[in-house]
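Listing 4. Sequential folding, example run.
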Amino acid sequence: MSGRTSRLCFLAASALAVAACTAAAIAECIGMSSMGSMPMPGGWHMSMIWMRMPTQTWPGAAASFLSMWLVMMAAMMLPSLLPVLRRYHRQIQHGDARHAGARTLLMAAGYFLVWAVLGALIYGMGIALATVAMRWPMLARIAPLAAGMIVLGAGALQFTRWKAHHLAGCRALPDCCQRLRANTAAVWRYGVQHGIRCCHCCAGLTAILLVAGVMDLRAMALVTAAITAERLAPAARPVAWLIGIAAMGAGIGLLAQAAWA
């Protein structure tokens, strides 16, 4: 297969993957929204995603959440991950064209494994918080105030050196040295390490998504646009700051709404 044909195949496969994951995420969101939500003290609604259906076991409920989480993360993260995968795929073509596709998939698998682990942790915390909110109405009433503080804090995080450090790591394309081209274990480790960097970089935006509604299409679209913009824009820091300003404004709005409720 020629280099040009290989690149075209990669681009076609990437476009198909993004389209399929986006369609699946939209379908999952629509399905979850049709299940409704539970009114809670304080004037907010708890998503049914944090509750086990009568016919479900807890392992089944967790597996259902993780499948939705991974589909959603794939749809959200692929636009900013593809340049990394493309760089690796293009470089490995020169020395090991037969295994370029498989090793590129391995790198992506390591990356999304990290997001799967994070999803499992989030599900456990979400179940615990949902249980607390249902058992203690007084604590449930402060949830809108806590949500505003989380969004405000996530916006402030965009201005920190910590965010700048991890954003720079996420924007860096892989240095496809001989070890990364030829060593399968090294490819896997790079995918995992890049996933960890990405989770750190997206910590604030992920928190905003969870507060706004993990399966809310509008929140997904906004967070996806924010992540993609700060990863791919020529100048990362001004974009990150603009996102921070918008998030802090939203947080202040939520706090004001909670105070007046």
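-- end of first protein; second protein begins --
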Amino acid sequence: MRIVIAEDDPLLREGLALLLHAEGLDVVATTDNPADFLAAVDKYEPDTAVVDVRMPPTHTDEGIVAAVEARRRRPGLAVLVLSAYVEQAFATDLLGSGSARLGYLLKERVGRVAEFMEALNRVADGGTAIDPEVVAQLLTRTRADSGLERLSPREREVLALMAEGWGNGAIAERLVVTDGAVHKHIRSIFAKLQLAPDDSADRRVTAVLRYLEEARR
């Protein structure tokens, strides 16, 4: 895996590089601003990028904008975005560009090496990794008429794990239920959200994005 890091905090940037090197991964470039990050993406053609949400010059949304542009320039680029705290609008903006090979993680997870590497590998393998705290805050802020009131507590748990990027087998293991039970809950979620059974994979992404988008309203 070839990785580019975009992080303006020098300690975190170098710490990430050392961690990834120790895990046997190839960090081809580290940058501290959006322009250099995009130049590195063009030059090194990485498989994965780790990007801070807030970078110079304004420290607002430069990281998100750069991540979206990097994926436009290099389709299929896996991007794991890091943020100091939950920023709902940025999370939904990023996922709105397509959820495959994308992750949104709070920086505190970096210190939990196993969790961070699990999220990075999941994103690199084509999945989605959303920080559990991001999911929790977004779900609790949804409007009463969004369809959430129709979901049972267990269905909410299943949806939260779906939003974190877990597959049916992993969800079953975490909730200590059968794969069949998880499949039944997901079908019920789709029905209650009135998602047509055209394509199960698309419905799964649509269910997550609907929650994230309605959370920002």
